[in-house]
Specification:
InterPro entries: GPCR_Rhodpsn (IPR000276), GPCR_Rhodpsn_7TM (IPR017452), TAAR (IPR050569), TAAR1 (IPR009133), TAAR_fam (IPR009132)
Main location: membrane
Organism: Phyllostomus discolor (pale spear-nosed bat)
Keywords: Cell membrane, Disulfide bond, Endoplasmic reticulum, G-protein coupled receptor, Glycoprotein, Membrane, Receptor, Transducer, Transmembrane, Transmembrane helix
Distance between the termini: 58 Å
Order of helices and strands: HHHHHHHHHH
CATH class: Mainly Alpha
Family: Belongs to the G-protein coupled receptor 1 family.
Strand content: under 5%
Number of helices: 10
Radius of gyration: 23 Å
Number of domains: 1
Amino acid sequence: MMSFCHNIVNISCVRSSWSNDVRASLYSLMVLIILTTLTGNLIVIISISHFKQLQTPTNWLIHSMATVDFLLGCLVMPYSMVRSVEHCWYFGEVFCKIHTSIDIMLSSASIFHLSFISIDRYYAVCDPLRYKAKISVLVIFVMIFISWSIPALFAFGMIFLELNLKGAEQMYYKHVHCLGGCSVFFSKPSGVLAFMTSFYIPGSIMLCVYYRIYFIAKGQEKSINDAKQKLQIGLEEKNGISRSKERKAAKTLGIVMGVFLICWCPFFVCMVLDPFLNYAIPHTLNDALIWFGYLNSTFNPMVYAFFYPWFRRALKMIVFGKIFQRDSSRYTLFLEPNP
């Protein structure tokens, strides 16, 4: 039997027809995703805020991205969870606009941060001698400001001025809008603009930067192999450690970028195509792809945990409460000049 979100049947959205077992399974899965997102990113935030050794310009960029991902898990995912499982929005029309704006803002801000982190790593790996001169604390804070401000202006402007409906108002109010719903709707022009701003431009920057890093790292590896026949063993080891760290940075960036593309590409491709397909993509599929995109914020801390020993050491100290010990903020987490 068909059930509705509200008593006024003729203008109400249709409630999901899933059984209680299916709903319980979906809620359990989404709660697990939310808790993992919150825990992982909170550990990154605490680690960089607490340990003096981690308070480098690059890590403040990572700290800012972890804050974005934490807020996504805190402010957006719980409400999206109820909407995805119930197919109903119980929190009012005004909060729907606020939630949608924050969702777009934080998702875009996370992607912007990834793009700027790739630029930072490019200079660290490919131009290490001039890295500190080019990527100063001021430059990092400008990156952070851009990563927050542009997505905020774009998201809130788009939703509250209803620019996302521009050119498709009749279609939306006749066939999509219903009482108790809160779907993210884009017309053809706004869908293309959102795709370009939130995904294509920052994603292209990441791809181009990683392409450059990969070939420069390969060239450095070749030069090291050639130099091995000429240099003394001590110098070889010193260069080997330095180049190994650079290759590790390139590999980490590649995996971060790969996770980003796998998580967000399906959603953005469907989002930009949907208006041109006369909104034929099922609502359930769109919801599933949004959650697949959210997973990017869940996986980011896992990448650091897997690749960086300093993260694992900081995690142990936080879990066992050692950060409350005197002078724990000065604890040495790594021996290299940079984590």
